[in-house]
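Notes from the 1:1 (GR / supervisor)

We went over the backlog. Supervisor wanted to see one worked example end to end before approving the batch request, so GR pasted a single chain during the call. The sequence is below; no edits were made to it. Supervisor asked that the structure be written out right there so they could see what the output format looks like.
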Amino acid sequence: MIGTLLNIGSVLLGGGLGTLLGDRLPQPIRETVMHGIGLVTLVVGMHLTMETQNTLIVLVSVLIGGILGEWWRISAGLDRASEWLRTRVAARVGERRMGRFTEGFVTASLVFCVGPMTILGAIRDGLSGDISLLAIKSVLDGFTAMAFASTLGIGVLFSMLTLLLYQGGITLLAGVAEQVLNPAMIAEMTATGGVLILAIGLMLLEIKRIRVANLLPALVVAPVIVAILQALGLPLAP
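Structure output shown during the call:
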């Protein structure tokens, strides 16, 4: 868990600095910064989607995941949980510093937890105590948290709860994860996550607001599809 704790510390440090900095930046600068982050987020999303061996797997994963997410109303539930957290934080730090709490919490949580470094780094940390991947990720997440928090506010800091539950959970279950997730599964999960990152980029650029949280089941659907294809002896590539 040392790697995850280091990652949480970097998010809190970067997010804290960003929150303090954001209050001192004029609105036009904050908007330009957020649009710049949105553009880079699109690039990252496109890079991740290139991990796939078969775009059809990603497409089916997103479609099935989206249907499940809408059925389970994940986005609405996450919004309620975020709002509950927001009201309690606002009572302590004041409404002025809250910013776009829910958007900051959800956006940062998805960005910090989607990607191969999260899965592979957490597994390596749990199996051998090697935190090198998570240490690199921590540096990247720290700077990203600072940029996000400067515009979206204090909600970014609370993405550390998602990191603790998701990344920390993978670390604790590293033995099981290594046996269940083979490289092909991780590749398709990463590519599917890239689609979610692209959706976040569109939101940050204010092009289209997408209920990204309702697409989260796609991250589970993707490796399941790969497992089925492998069990049937079918090729992953078209």
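Supervisor's comment: The mean pLDDT is 88.
Batch request approved.
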